[in-house]
C-alpha cells in the first residue's frame, strides 16, 4: 500500500512540477526533496523490474536535483550554456548576458527573459546522461550513451530557446505565453530524438525506459481498478 500511495503522490507532484516549469517557473526546493523521497518505497517495494524503475528514477533525479544548486553556483556552471548558446543564437538576434547577477536573454538588443536553472543544460544534460548510466549494458556503451545525451543537450537546448523567442515574437506573445506554447512540445521532441540516438549505441535502453514508466503508472492505478484487472 505504501508504494502505491507513494507512486500516486509522486505522479501528482511531478505533474505539478512540470506545469510550473512549462509556465517558465521553478518548483520549491522542498518539492524536489519530496519528489526524491517518494521514490524510496517505490524502488524498494514495487513488484516489477527494479532496474527499469532505477532508469526512470535516474531521469527524475537528473531533471529535478539541479534545482537545488545555489544560484551563485548556477551562474558559474551555466557559463558554458551562455557561450554555446550565443554562438548558435546570435545570428537570430538572440543573445545571453550576465546582468545584475542574472543570466538574461536579449532579443534585438532588448531584455526578453531570465535564463533559469530549468532552462539550462544543467537540467537537460543531467536528465539525458543519468538514465543510460543506470541502464543495462556494457560500461563503455553506457558511458558513450551518457556522453551523447549530455553533449547533444547543448545544441538542442539552444534551438529550443531560439524557438521560444522567435515564435513568441512572431505571434506577438509575451515570454510567459511563448514558453508555455513552445517549450513543452520542443522539450519532448528533443528528448525523444536524443534518446533514439542513445538507443543506437545502447540497444534495449528505450525498452527499459518504457518498462520503468509502465511499472510506475500501473503501481499508481487506483486500487479499485487494480483489483478488478
> Within the largest sheet, what's the order of strands?
1-2-3
Low-confidence stretches: none
What percentage of amino acids are in beta strands?
A: 5-15%
**What's the shape?**
globular
Derived structural class? mainly alpha
Q: Which range best describes the helical content: under 10%, 10-25%, 25-40%, 40-55%, 55-70% or over 70%?
A: over 70%
- Mean residue pLDDT: 87
Largest sheet: 3 strands, antiparallel
Number of helical elements: 10
Along the chain, the helix and strand elements come as HHHHHEEEHHHHH
> In angstroms, what separates the terminal alpha carbons?
17 Å
Radius of gyration: 19 Å
Q: Oligomerization state of this entry?
A: single chain
**How many distinct beta strands?**
3
Report what the structure shows:
The chain is globular, with a radius of gyration of 19 Å. The chain has helices spanning 2-22, 29-45, 50-64, 71-77, 79-89, 121-134, 139-171, 175-201, 205-219, 223-228; strands at residues 94-99, 102-107, 110-114. It has ten helices and three strands. The protein has 229 residues and is mainly alpha-helical. It has a three-stranded antiparallel beta sheet with strand order 1-2-3.
Amino acid at each position: 500500500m505504501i508504494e502505491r500511495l507513494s507512486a500516486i503522490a509522486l505522479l501528482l507532484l511531478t505533474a505539478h512540477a512540470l506545469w510550473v516549469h512549462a509556465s517558465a517557473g521553478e518548483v520549491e526546493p522542498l518539492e524536489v526533496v519530496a519528489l526524491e523521497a517518494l521514490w524510496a518505497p517505490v524502488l524498494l517495494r514495487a513488484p516489477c523490474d527494479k532496474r527499469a524503475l532505477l532508469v526512470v528514477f535516474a531521469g527524475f533525479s537528473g531533471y529535478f536535483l539541479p534545482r537545488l544548486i545555489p544560484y551563485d553556483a548556477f551562474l558559474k556552471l551555466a557559463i558554458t550554456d551562455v557561450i554555446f548558446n550565443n554562438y548558435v543564437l546570435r545570428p537570430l538576434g538572440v543573445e545571453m548576458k550576465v546582468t545584475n547577477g542574472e543570466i538574461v536573454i536579449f532579443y534585438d538588443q532588448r531584455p526578453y527573459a531570465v535564463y533559469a536553472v530549468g532552462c539550462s543544460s544543467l537540467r537537460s544534460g543531467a536528465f539525458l546522461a543519468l538514465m543510460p548510466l543506470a541502464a543495462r549494458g556494457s560500461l563503455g556503451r553506457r558511458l558513450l550513451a551518457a556522453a551523447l545525451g549530455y553533449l547533444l543537450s547543448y545544441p538542442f537546448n539552444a534551438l529550443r530557446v531560439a524557438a521560444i523567442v522567435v515564435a513568441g515574437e512572431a505571434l506577438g506573445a509575451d515570454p510567459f505565453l511563448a514558453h508555455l506554447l513552445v517549450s513543452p512540445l520542443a522539450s519532448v521532441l528533443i528528448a525523444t530524438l536524443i534518446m533514439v540516438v542513445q538507443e543506437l549505441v545502447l540497444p534495449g535502453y528505450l525498452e527499459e525506459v518504457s518498462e520503468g514508466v509502465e511499472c510506475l503508472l500501473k503501481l499508481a492505478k487506483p486500487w479499485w481498478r487494480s483489483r478488478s484487472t
